[in-house]
## 1
Amino acid sequence: MAGGALLLALPAAPALAVDGQALLQERCASCHNLTGPAPTTLEGVWNRKGPDLFYAGLKYRRDWVVRWLQHPTRIRPAGMYYGKHLRTRPDGQDEVDPSTLVRHPVLSRAEAEAAADALMRLKAKSELIRPGEYKPGRISMSLGDLLFDKFKGCIACHRIEPDYGGLSGPEVYTAWARLQPDWMISYMRNPQAWDPRTFMPRRPLKERDLQNFVHYFKGLYEEMQEEGGPEDE
């Protein structure tokens, strides 16, 4: 009994801390570029399995990273490079072949927290960011739709709703929850400065257009939440 009482009185052993940097190397480095630079050849783009992460600390919101790594969803409907994931239907039209798409690994809460902390320390190309450049505001969603679709043609590659828009680029209806506003502005201003071989065109956007795009992405996300959309995408 004395021995049993002694055992019951002993404190539980603390959980071992997860080494985020080691986790990135073991679980992420095979698909993601953690050190840079971005590929500069078409072969490099073709072989890219996932988005570059060597500037993740400038690009992503930490809270979103933690949630998403525990419950990953597909952000790019046609994969990292859409040309590798298409098939031809009997009517001659192309469609995404889901059998070629790979599911992202699921991490535990502790792993996600550690990975997020390690990712937030990756801040290459920080000279491209102008801290505080985004000025909070709003845009009429009808005007935002016109800007995104009719005026700039962005909808050809990006979805603004789960089933509406292009497939070759990442969805934008979760961009506000996912991405840091200053990074969005910098990337839209000059995509090739971040990724020399990106398919995202560099358009002559005015500074107010850059601000309005981020307002629009915020509005899309808020609309999705009001309609009961997935919070953690």
## 2
Amino acid sequence: MEGGSGSSSPCPLDKGFSDQIAVLLSPPSPESIKDYYDELMKTRKCNDLKINFSNSSGKAVYAIKEFEEGELVLKDQILVAAQHSSNKVDCLVCSYCFRFIGSIELQIGRKLYLQELGLSANKECKESLSRFPEKACTRVLDDIKKHSVSNGSHGVGSSTYTNSKDNSIPTEVLHSLINGNMSLPYTNLFALPSIFDCPGGCKEEHYCSKLCADLDWESFHSLLCTGRNTEPSKRDAILQFIEHSNGTNDIFIVAAKVISYTILKFRKLKRLRLKENEKRAKLDETDFPLLLEAWKPVSMGFKKRWWDCIALPDDVDSSDEASFRMQIRDLAFTSLQLLKEAIFEDECTPLFSLEIYGHIIGMFELNNLDLVVASPVEDYFIHIDDLPSPEKEEAEKLTRPLLESLGDEYSVCCQGTGFYPLQSCMNHSCCPNAKAFKGDEDKDGQAIIIAAQSIVKGEEITISYIDEDLPYDERQALLADYGFRCMCQRCLEEMPGM
């Protein structure tokens, strides 16, 4: 099996399991697509939409009722997603649903403390923050809590970390905010869910509830956990994989979650069959359908090899394109080898082929909707600013120094990459009738699609994959990275020569 761009694959599994890989990557039949999405729409109670499939245009979403401008069209749950590694320093969120957790005080104190650490820490600590942002954050905050206990219940005392900015906050105040020993005015109006730890005992993942912790464990995290119950050699391998991902491209972490999801679902399906006394020990022709069934939700996403579909950067000359794409392929192979060392499962060997890995990453390149959750810290400071006098002046005695120290970064939202199974079926238009939108009530990582204009019954629902305000040529150039030329009504009208 070729590795793309005219070069044979460096991964021996691509050749050894080529037949099974071809089946996994073959487009689902129209019947299976219809059955899958009919069941998904029924489960999620999306009674106002339907998904149609045609060989010419693929999947498309249609309205089966009228929508008024601004009306909710779709609330789509994530199939798999991950917060960007660099964003973990700014936002503490649930690792499953991506709600902000803890308290406003913790969010502010944690962010400022880590901000100061990044400014004043030595090179080794900066590199640690870059490679293991969440692990470094957790370690530092654990140190604060231990230090606070040894210095009294109020969390105030000297610190080895000093503050170097003129408008910065005393370290003991940050300790108190983080430890819950200091309350800011009106934060009771912005209560956040309590923090639940990882069931496996790792310090990298946190949750808003036991339900989210258990769901993440069962669906993804149990194979990727670096907690106390993980075999040391596997833990080291997982950490090496994470380090490589954080240092290169954290899209690899999302791809790892897809493979983990498929393996865990395969195990579940096999357990169900074992209960029926149909015992089979190895992956063979009779077990392969179980892997196909576990893979089905992923099979529905449009895919190409990552190194074939990734946009050529502006600083790479077209004469160097082939070399660039081979470098991207080799980067993916390095990541895959590290992941294979960490979570390889013999019965699911085809999942660890470069061909499958490249297509998983390519699926996110072509289908992902940015994961965005607005920060409650921004809402909090807006509330303070809107208070009447003298309440505002009194509150700002405490909040103004914090806001000034945060600067422009006070409103950073949770950011990540996600795959949304229903939203990914929506086709592009440069004059879309729907758009992604998050309201004040949308507190988690679900994709929210609303009507950008009136939509009539039977009309296809479209969104824009790009900035539709760009000129025709720029829009077409960006859409070429998605593998198609847009022929929407607007593009037909603006096409040169028309």
## 3
Amino acid sequence: MMIPNRFPFLCTLLLCLTPFTYAAGQVMETTKPLFSSVFISDSLINALKKAVAEKRSPAYTAFEVCRMHADQNLDRTPTVPKQWYVPGYYHDAEGHRKAKNGLRDDANAAYAMALCYRVTGQEKYARSAVRIINAWAMEMETMSRKDDSMLSFSYHFPALIFAADLLRDESAIWPKDQQKVFSEFLRNEALPMNTMSRKNNWGNWGLVLAVSCAVYLKDEVLFGKCAGRWKYFIEHQIAADGHLPHEVNRSGGQRGIWYSHFSLMPQTIAAEILRVNGADLYNFKSPGGRTLKKAYERIAGWTRKPDTFPYWKGDPAELKGMHYFSYFEILNSHWVNDDASKLLAESRPMTATHSAPFLTFTHGITLKKTD
């Protein structure tokens, strides 16, 4: 059992008063949130069930991948550490992966099983997912905030929240007293782990964790602050031509596209959570004229034609992380883009390891045939 945080109110208060909340030019979103679902709405589940029943692509083919992953993890034993600590990747890559991959694999498995339960109605999926969710809420004793501990938690734990949200109406499978323990863990332990105050991709991933907690806990104040932080990132992370100055020069530009994806993916996931809950910011234009659409168009072009990426002077074939664009499934449903459509057509069904796997299944649209 996690050692209780003795000052839960103080943690929440400090989160609400941190400097990023009232950064210059930033206004808290005032739209009253719906608090209907965190990431996957009931209406989307109904549409997915229909698409699977009718064997319509891309949902049906992608669902088979999701179900295969769920089936492989039905008997999974949760891998919860007693002490959560993740060393920095660039100091101890092996230790970093070993420390965080248990959460990654548990969270993604629980999410796959929760999706399969909602689509098929088979309780075996829900019961296995609940076992994993409960373990993470009950079995850790301490959580470090050093090195990559907060970042790794910020980008892997949200999938567990998405899973829990899909199952919270099933009190016969997930009793209310267990759900209360999970909610308390979110408020007192998970939420303070967010990295939303950071200016680069760390901030975007922290936003995903914070806004997921806000919706699950029905916290209107936190939801408004998350929406305000999302707008702040649009203004301060995106240049006039759509590139991300914090990310494009990483490793001399060799990882510039990868880190741009690694910033825009969480920004997109957060946008979708906000939209589902009544704050549709996809077409938001910042005071400086910055937009998510412009960043999407820029990175989609570079991803499809890496030789046009100006921040790397070496062989384009040596660029890292070129294929981490599953979040294009969400963005392409808002702004159909030729480069993104071609990339998706070549790569479906797509998934990811951070926060939101199976995006071709949940958010993919039918692509028009292109030359």
## 4
Amino acid sequence: MSLSCACGSVEFQAFGHPILTSVCYCDDCQKAGHQIESLPQAPSVVGHDGGTAYILYRRDRVTCLRGSERLAEHRVEGEAFTKRVVAACCNSGMYLDFEKGHWLSLYRDRFRGQAPAVEMLIQTKYKPAETVLPQDIPSFSGFPLKFIGKIMRAKFEMMFGR
């Protein structure tokens, strides 16, 4: 699957199957998303419901095909373990990097073509009060065991070269 910034100057390729697809409602994703959206001509990051949609891929399965020199880090706080990476050419949010992790959370809206369906809604305890969650997607107030299990499975697969 390929993803690109809004102007097309930055392009990534994600290989194989994603770990999972989710929408996060945590405070950090909302705050960082709104900060990115406040940049000149930046496309939307946060959905109308306050959630940020991601497709999680193993770090070793994501490659920048072009435009790496245009990527810029964005941190909500200076010492945060997470950083958002933005294509500075058009201020498109590209991905969230939990630096201690083995995966990247790629912004779902950056994918070209049909992106995988959302599997779960996480950190819903932080959703805006007016947000009504869809009933056809499992929602969790925190990080569910299924989420953690899929992340750990991907780690083991990386360790054993699968």
